[in-house]
Design a protein that fits this description.
It is a single chain. By secondary structure, this protein is of the alpha+beta class. It has four domains: 2-176, Sandwich (Immunoglobulin-like); 181-269, Immunoglobulin-like (Sandwich), CATH 2.60.40; 281-555, no CATH class; 570-673, Glutaredoxin. Helices cover 43% and strands 21% of the residues. The radius of gyration is 32 Å and the shape is elongated. The chain starts with a helix and ends with a helix.
Length: 677
């Protein structure tokens, strides 16, 4: 998909380039890059090389492109007109910067820069001979919202002389930004969709924000995250191999080692391993997987206190006390409940991995980005609440409060599915790590989440002492069951709010009508049950019709009008973030969604408090909000680039810092008030 967008964009830009009038009409001016030719010597020596700088200054908010523009655009072309015998070499480009727009990685210049070109002056020219130099260049220049192909005709008239240098300080600065050639060979290895490049680099030398810019195109995925590690006198860059990449030949590029400093790298195929062997890589991967698994187990355990899960767990636990289950039956139900939870988590994890492999930027609770899935969960939560309130008894399959392995399995599956809107401590980092691990390890992490979610009931089933702590059966259990209907009704209300935010009040009204229909059908079925009859096949068919019909109708509903961000906050775009960082302002970026309970708690308890807002204003901290309720793919890729499987994600960009600080998933006002100090 990315390559298709690149082709379409390039073709359109090429077509635009056929009409300068069209390009000029896009922004009222066709000169968004200020250019001039500067010679290192005003009186070049005959027969000697002469360096010419193409001093370029982008207009504020615009950027020019490197020799490899990245995922979009096209490189500049140079058409020299020189005296007979003179010859211009290939341009030497300064180290670029990265700019990610709409999921496309661009290699650009947003500040003044100067490609250097060496011209061989013909021999035999007498002193005082005129040396005219002419250049016609075509290039692409872009802002955050528009791209314009431009042309410029530049000229420079010199006179043959003694070759005395001029502009010494300026050329010293321009040369400093040109990558230095690496005096020893680099190697690369490509396998299993991963490219690893090993670059010799002294252990005593410092690096800052190391990044590999490929000159050889079609080898690495430009937009993929790059992991740079150091092992003695070597830097290793690990990133994603480009789709349909052809390896075997040399790979050239520029390794940034500091601000406007880089090395020209030419890597040949070879063996790239950690510490002299390939075993360390596997060990590191599985160590990461083990840590992520532990975090997922803890995160799943915390989910049990959420209002949508706690009533189901409580009833399932009390059913053991009420039924006086034997040791064997208790363990069987515990294992069945665990199987239901883990299988649903594995299924959701497999779906996420498959969709992301196909190019979709989805994450945890991705199904809640679709109104049809929300209405199904809404109706299901309402039905469970009605059951807990005593309106009816669940027929087959047996759910919470019913004994038996099948009922326990169904209860576990239900608990896991309803828990998807929730996230909390440990979960975000764990699931984010899962997305960069090999798929077996990733699935193990999702399985760990299910294990954590099922741990309390698993412990009750396998530890008799825990069951003895449970209250003895009695009339109070029916009252407690009715009380547990309250958090389930609150869950249904929260899902209704999310649906209304996504699709508007008309769709919410339709969903409430569906809830009323479900309640009516359940009341009819419950009345039959109180008379000693079965719930009724007709009632079950009616329920299925309401569920499916509501999902189909709401899936066709138009989206709601644009939402308003919190006071003082701007909507997140990568262009706006780049602009604020260029102004050297501290920036707090928070990614949220209406269906994310943790997000909403953090916003009410920390982000939107008066103390935090006053601190932001005092410290000049800009706040950007990324609303991922509808699953915007561009935002999803940005979240993915920071190793997160979903929201919440909180980032703080300190002025001048190369990378953001990832803040905890549970925020406090004090933590936010300290930003920017």
């Amino acid at each position: 998909m990315r390559s298709l967008r690149c082709v379409v964009m390039t073709v359109l830009l090429a077509l635009c380039g056929l009409s300068p009038a069209f390009a000029e009409s896009l922004n009222g001016s066709s000169q968004h890059l200020s250019m001039r030719l500067v010679a290192e010597s005003d009186r070049p020596k005959a027969g000697a090389p002469l360096t010419i700088a193409l001093a370029t200054t982008p207009e504020k908010g615009w950027h020019g492109y490197w020799r490899n523009p990245g995922d979009a655009g096209f490189p500049a072309t140079f058409d020299w007109t020189l005296p007979a015998g003179a010859k211009a070499g290939e341009p030497e480009w300064p180290v670029p910067t990265t700019l990610l727009i709409a999921g496309l990685m661009n290699y650009v210049y947003e500040a003044p820069y100067a490609p250097l070109v060496t011209i061989q002056v013909p021999a035999g020219l007498a002193a005082g001979t005129r040396l005219p130099i002419r250049l016609k260049t075509s290039y692409l220049v872009c802002s955050a919202t528009i791209c314009v192909p431009e042309e410029q005709a530049l000229s420079l008239d010199l006179t043959i002389g003694d070759g005395a240098p001029a502009q010494t300080a300026a050329f010293a600065d321009w040369r400093r930004a040109i990558p230095k050639p690496l005096d020893s060979g680099a190697t690369y290895a490509a396998s299993n969709g991963t490219m690893r490049i090993a670059v010799p680099f002294p252990a005593s030398a410092k690096t800052d924000a190391a990044y590999f810019f490929p000159v050889t195109t079609g080898v690495i995925d430009n937009g993929a995250r790059q992991n740079v590690t150091r092992d003695g006198d070597r830097l290793t860059i690990e990133t994603k191999l480009a789709a349909n990449a052809k390896s075997g030949g040399p790979v050239e590029g520029v390794l940034r080692i500091g601000d406007a400093q880089g090395l020209s790298v030419k890597a040949t195929p070879g063996v790239v391993a950690d510490s002299g062997s390939g075993t360390a890589t596997a060990e590191n991967v599985w160590l990461t997987a083990l840590v992520a698994f532990a975090g997922a187990v803890l995160g799943g355990l915390i989910l049990n206190i959420m209002p949508c899960v706690f009533p189901i767990l409580s009833l399932k636990a009390l059913s053991l006390a009420r039924g006086g289950a034997s040791e064997k039956d208790a363990r069987g139900e515990a294992l069945a409940y665990t199987a239901g939870v883990v299988l649903v988590c594995l299924g959701l994890g497999a779906a996420i991995l498959a969709l992301r492999a196909g190019g979709s930027a989805v994450g945890w609770a991705f199904q809640l980005q679709h109104p049809a899935a929300i209405v199904v969960l809404l109706l299901l939560s309402a039905a469970i609440a009605f059951n807990l309130a005593g309106l009816f008894e669940v027929p087959t399959p047996r759910f919470a409060g019913e004994s038996g392995a099948s009922g326990a399995f169904a209860t576990g599956a239900l608990a896991a599915f309803i828990a998807t809107p929730c996230t909390g401590p440990f979960m975000g980092a764990a699931l984010g790590a899962a997305l960069v691990l090999p798929w077996p390890a990733a699935l193990a992490v999702f399985g760990g989440l299910g294990l954590g979610l099922s741990l309390p009931f698993l412990a009750i089933g396998f530890v008799p002492a825990w069951r003895r702590w449970l209250p003895r059966p009695g009339v109070w259990m029916e009252t407690f069951r009715h009380i547990l209907s309250v958090p389930m009704f609150l869950t249904a209300i929260a899902l209704g709010w999310v649906l209304g935010r996504q699709t508007g009040v008309d769709t919410l009204t339709l969903a409430l009508i569906a809830v009323l229909a479900v309640g009516a059908v359940l009341w009819i079925g419950g009345s039959r049950q109180r008379k000693g009859k079965a719930f009724g096949a007709a009632a079950q068919i009616a329920l299925a019709v309401v569920f499916v019909g509501s999902a189909v109708l709401i899936a066709r509903a138009p989206p709601a009008s644009a939402k308003v961000a919190a006071a003082g906050d701007e909507g997140f775009t990568e262009a706006r973030l780049a602009s604020l960082r260029a102004e050297k302002r501290p920036v707090f970026v928070y990614f949220t969604a209406d269906w994310c309970l943790t997000c909403k708690v953090n916003e009410k308890a920390a982000i939107d408090t008066a103390g935090v807002r006053d601190a932001f204003a005092k410290n000049n901290v800009a706040a950007l909000i990324g609303d991922w309720t509808d699953g915007d793919p561009v935002m999803g890729r940005f979240i993915q680039a920071h190793n997160r499987a979903g929201v919440p994600l909180y980032l703080y960009y300190a002025p001048g810092a190369a990378e953001p600080t990832v803040l905890p998933q549970v925020l406090t006002p004090g933590l936010l008030q300290a930003l920017g100090r």
